[in-house]
Amino acid sequence: MPRIPAKKTSEAGLFLKLAYRIARRRFGAVPEPMAVTAHHSGLLRTYLVHELLAERASKKLPANVRELAVYRVATRIGCSWCVDFGTMLQKHEGLDIERLTKIDDYATSPAFSRPERLALAYADAMSADQVSVTDEQVAELEREFGRDGLLELTYQIALENSRARMNSALGLVDQGFTSGEACRVPLP
Questions:
Q1: 63-77 and 114-127 helices cross at what angle (nearest 10)?
Q2: Helix (H/G/I), strand (E/B), else coil: 11
Q3: By its UniProt entry, which SUPFAM superfamilies does this protein fall under (predicted)?
Q4: pLDDT per residue over 36-50, tens digit each?
């Protein structure tokens, strides 16, 4: 149970009802972080616009690399909501979610490619208690993904750190997106 209850549709104004409807259509349920943030209308608008713009701008990296790095952050921070939602997003992208069980062994597991390993190690370095990114790591990532790809990866990892830490602080836990309890959106 979240530390702050979700704002109910019955308490919502026109904008929030529309936002909830769009979220339900897209994800099968209103994501709890959105419904909790809805208590602060200015932050909700900021949150929604930021998420949409970040999603639209993030097209340089292969989806598997981006989504694995974001998922890794969620597991490192311990945000069960983010793990649940991230697994559902990967499933809808048509990515292999079975290998997520091997994420802790990414450095040696044949389930992950070299570019994925580089991104996962970067996510670890950015998500540690103290950031431990090296110049060599950044240079290697830039060679692998180009400058735009490196910036996108950095941004997405930092964004997931923010999401995961906020959700964890607010007591948000998995919502059933992976199990299908929350998400009734059919796979593409």
A1: 30
A2: helix
A3: AhpD-like (SSF69118)
A4: 999 999 999 999 999
- 105 vs 111: CA distance, rounded Å: 9
Can you tell me the distance from the alpha carbon of 98 to that of 90, in angstroms, rounded to the nearest whole number? 10
pLDDT in tens, 124-158: 999 999 999 999 999 999 999 999 999 999 999 99
Query: Got the DSSP string for 24-93?
Result: HHHHSS--HHHHHHTTSHHHHHHHHHHHHHHHHH--SS-HHHHHHHHHHHHHHHT-HHHHHHHHHHHHHT
CA pair distance 153, 167, nearest whole angstrom: 21
Taking Cα atoms as reference points, which of 129, 153, 132 lies closest to residue 143? 153
Evaluate if residue 91 carries a pLDDT over 80: yes
Which tokens go with 38? 């809805």
- Two tokens at 43? 């932050």
Q: Extract the runs of DSSP E, i.e. beta strands, from 74-182.
A: none
Per residue in 62-72, pLDDT tens? 999 999 999 99
- The answer to whether 48 touches 19, Cβ cutoff 8 Å, is yes
What's the residue count for the chain?
188
Find where tokens 């930021």 sit. Answer: 50
